[in-house]
Amino acid sequence: PEVEIQVFQEISSTSQVMKQKALESRLPHGSFVAANSQIEGRGRKGRSFYSPKGSGLYLSVLLYPGKTVQESLEMTAAAAVAVCKAVRESCGVSLDIKWVNDLYLQGKKVCGILTEAVTDFETGDIEFAVVGIGLNLYEPEEGFPGELRQKAGTILQKGQQVDRNRLAACIVNCLLKEVEKKGIPGEYIAWNIIPGRKIKLHSDFKSRIVLAERISEDGRLVIRNEQGQEEILSATDVSLEL
Ligand code: BTN
Fold this sequence. Notes:
Blueprint (H helix, E strand, L loop, with lengths): L4 E7 L2 H11 L7 E7 L17 E8 L5 H23 L4 E3 L3 E4 L2 E12 L6 E11 L11 H4 L12 H17 L5 H5 L7 E6 L2 E10 L5 E4 L5 E4 L5 E3 L1
Parallel strand pairs: 1-2
Antiparallel strand pairs: 2-3, 3-7, 4-5, 5-6, 6-7, 8-9, 8-12, 9-10, 10-11
Helix pairs in contact: 2-4
The structure holds biotin.
Biotin binds next to helix 1, strand 3, strand 6 and strand 7.
């Protein structure tokens, strides 16, 4: 069946709408919802994602990955790689990946990715997943607000432009190709800027500074802790600052 594509000027959240549609009827793998702005853009860990009009591209793609959490992790890594490839092809810009799933350009976050999996209540199997991608293409008219001013950047610089429709199509095509491959993509590990850096980890009200050693073959973060021991962390355990 043909994929379903819906495009909005403004929407609550592309991921919320995509999820709702997928719950109402079985839509094909690769269907997506895109918008120019979001009123309630969602980020990881219940945060909001700043999504003003004229600035970005917000899209959410419906996927049927395998049934396990590891497969959903692989899909998230595939999404990061797919966006990097699509942005390089459409905008001529190479992005860095910051474990788990932020994309950076010159030290600033320019894209956030949020994968939400809907599981069967009884078996715990994944029924479908919605991969939400938010790209800051241009500087917002009034600049980024508050603390985002330090942290957020844009993919394009003043005077540069990209055709959003083509970029969206390119991202979805790359994503579908990446998720076909099994395992964590090699590029996900190679393009990660975390290994070798001192990072600040936050978990359960504590934060600590540790050395990030590498990304493991299964997409987890290997660190060296204060006692000099190796620890392997998953995305659900911690959040991280550069
Ligand atoms: C993060 O950086 O914490 C993840 C941000 C994910 C934002 C995208 S924008 C499109 C989709 N719709 C949402 O409400 N969120 C995701």
